[in-house]
Amino acid sequence: MKRFIVSLSLLALAACSGGGGGGTGGSGGGVAPVPTPGPPAPSVQGDMLSLVPSRGWNYHSIGVSPAITITLYADPAPVNGVRALIGSGVTGTVATVATSPSAMDTYLLGALGIVTDGAYDASVYSEVSLGSTAAVPGTPLLVPGTLTLGQSWTPYPGATASVIAVGTVPNAIACPVPASGARVRYTFPGYDGTLSYVPGCGITDYLNNANGAELTLVSVGLYPGIGELAEKRRVESVTLLDTARSVLGLERNAFAPLPGLSKFF
Question: Global pTM?
Answer without folding.
Answer: 0.82
